[in-house]
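ASSEMBLY PREDICTION REQUEST
Request ID: AP-0331
Submitted by: J.K., bench scientist
Number of chains: two
Total residues: 222
Priority: normal
Notes: Please return the full assembly, not individual chains.
Input sequences:
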Amino acid sequence: SQTIHQWPATLVQPVGSPLSLECTVEGTSNPNLYWYRQAAGRGLQLLFYSVGIGQISSEVPQNLSASRPQDRQFILSSKKLLLSDSGFYLCAWKGSGQGFYEQYFGPGTRLTVT
Amino acid sequence: AQRVTQPEKLLSVFKGAPVELKCNYSYSGSPELFWYVQYSRQRLQLLLRHISRESIKGFTADLNKGETSFHLKKPFAQEEDSAMYYCALRTNDYKLSFGAGTTVTVRA
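STATUS: Completed
Returned structure:
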């Protein structure tokens, strides 16, 4: 069966420091991968998605970037964190076949920028 | 533009009472809608999809294209139903658009 992992689970970083959050999926190949930020009262904001290695689509211009160096690995990065980057970050995957639209989520990373 | 609206941020009901979570959408194409749920300390998970016409944990949701709604209902709420609920709309082959979420509290 498919599983999705994220780490770290929690992270406290100072303003101006770099960021790297990692997401990996097991048990499936060529998944679509997604990064979301979950904020109270604002729902899930899609940040990036990827339909294949090296293919990244950005939904919201911001201080963050994403990369997909391997088929089942998705990384969220920042060179210099801002206070406003604090939040709960979720990774999700979706099957690449037609007719499969639901997404499956990882456990999330709680990021606090101080 | 595609949009999902969940008008209630918070919903509090007593155990055994009916619960209805509202979801309205705007979409020019043929909609596909989902409900996701996040229980305390658990990951966000799919609750049900409208195309399956299924009942999961006593919840049902009917797509009403005339009213552009996909409300989630359960006739008798249980304490374990306390959670955050998100309505989601497929916007293309790759993406889902989520509502702001409704936090449900079921009181004994």
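REVIEWER COMMENTS: Chain A has a mean pLDDT of 91.
SIGN-OFF: pending second reviewer
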